[in-house]
Amino acid sequence: MLFFRKEKTKEYLIEVFYFFSKILILSFVLEFFLPGLIITYFNLNIFLFFWILLFIIILGNICFSKK
Amino acid sequence: MEICLGICHNVIKEKGMNRKKLRIYLNILLFVFFGVLFFLYISPLGWATYKKDFSRKYNNIFLGKGAIYKLGPVDRLFDKNKLSGEPAYFYLKTNRNFDSAKIKMKYKISDQVVQKNNFINLELGVLLNEENWNYRFYPIYNNILNDLYHNWTKQVDNQAVFLQREDKFKGLTDYLNNKDFSSLLLYNYNLNNDFVLKDYQGGDNYKTTLPALRGSHVFYTYLKDESLKFDFSFSNLDQSNKNNLDLFVYLNDDVIFSKSFSAEEFLNNQIVNFSLDLVDLPESVYKIEVRANDNFIINKTDVYLPKLVFLHKLNLYNTKNGFDVFSNKNNFRIKSLESLCLADVNINDSKFSVDRIFQQFNFNVDGRGINNIQSDSCGMLIENNGLFSFSIESFFNPLISSLASDVSVDEYNFVIAKYQPPTELNNYYISELEIDLRGAQRKKGEYRFIISAPFLKNEDNLQYLEIKDIEIVLSGKSLFDKIKEYLF
Prior knowledge:
heterodimer; A: mainly alpha; B: 5 helices; 14% helix
């Protein structure tokens, strides 16, 4: 059961990672075409921090998980 | 893998469903996130509110930059939001144009500023034109008016406040009908004054010649049943100067005549003569402006009207026998632009020395009324907040005094002001003002604001103006109005 739970968490984390990737790409594109749309209200570094954190966790999970 | 047998198919199906659900939720979140931001960006309802607390580094918990930013410059700023010098600026980033803004500013003026300054005037301006640094100013705080609002009789009339030392007139309309504005002070109020010079005798066969003047000058003249006649002679000192020289004649702030002289007309050190002769003009005060840079010289001006006063400055050039001028103010900023012209200056009975070129000397004398400035110098720049004339007979004052640092309120009995005194809360002042943004410059999506506080001299950190926070409520056309405008 532990195996499934861990697998499930990994899948969810990957989904959230995709979400942050989309939000970052869209934010940069929109900020380029509509200056001030994002940075007035949000600091993109927060998203970038979470994106990197998730990236490291997922990468670690893939590399060090038992096969 | 044995565990999987029998139930594995359902688990995978369930897992797939959960992932799909999560993806849907996150996509909805993504859509809402950008939807909200886009709504804030286009302000479809035609209004937007921005607030900035300058004592905090970030605008919100998401560490956003905020729409109001760049309070500075940094060399006039300490402790994030305390200004020790002026002018200061801040920017407002908007995604579209707005028509007006209601600004609420919370600030503190340090005790040392209050102790050291008799006149504290704080203004906020919005940039209209970057090229000529033109700002439209609105008053925030004035200590003299704050006192007068408490101590004098106050009547509010058509957005202006009419203050009287003694309760003589029923209201502003009653006072304006009186037509005597000699003891009136204005503050942020334009009064269309139909100035009449009583007992004015026209100048039949009158003629006088003014000495040479350098650069821009503004002067007033008065006429009744005669023509507006001046003979000018202009020259250009620098042949590489490509700017124009412009001449304007105004009646009640409306241009009634203008002429432009291009740099080509001054080629080969040519002197340009021009005779201004406007006939059939009504009796009134006329303002004449020569707009030119300091490379242009008004060599000679033949004047055919007996009344003539210059506004704020005289830049005398190459005066062979020195100069003898008069002014209604008793403070002077005097500068010599040539070493040969360094000399003593006599103001009434006091002697002052102008012994360094390009240095501005500030001289004050006790005299009230008309003061005489005399020197053997070959030319100097003389400035103050008043009027100048070349003879005591030609002096007249068509202007209504405005509340300024060099004005003593004791000499006046009436004030008309467009000013809302601040309220006080926890040692902070709160001022609210309504700003017209039509015609304001919006460059790269930014409106630029200026804070004018002449009492801040960047001397020490004890004399400061603390800007706590600023709230700006913008209003303009809604998206619906714009669509309607586009379609019909």
